[in-house]
Amino acid sequence: MAKYYFEEKDSERCYDLETIKDRMRCENLTERKVFEAEREIDAPAFFCRFDAEVYEKGSCRDCTEYTPRNKVSGICKHNRPVYNPSKWITIKL
Length: 93
Known about the structure:
Elements: E1 4-6, E2 14-16, H1 17-26, E3 31-39, E4 45-48, E5 53-56, E6 79-80, E7 83-92
Antiparallel strand pairs: 1-2, 1-3, 3-7, 4-5, 4-6
């Protein structure tokens, strides 16, 4: 499973390591402190990969893009977990 990182404690989005490093290169940084993202277990919400928004669990079937992972019924293929910032770490290029 990929690890994700928040750039700030109150950031709404987290990114994978390569994206963080790309952003560092664009900003000419050699190191950056970020928060590790920790998956929220039993969260009342989910992240929709299709439109990059957070929604309340159970609202998938109202969406026009709802497509069950098992091709019959159940969780949508766009459904992903939500994350919270945990501890500071330093990433170096």
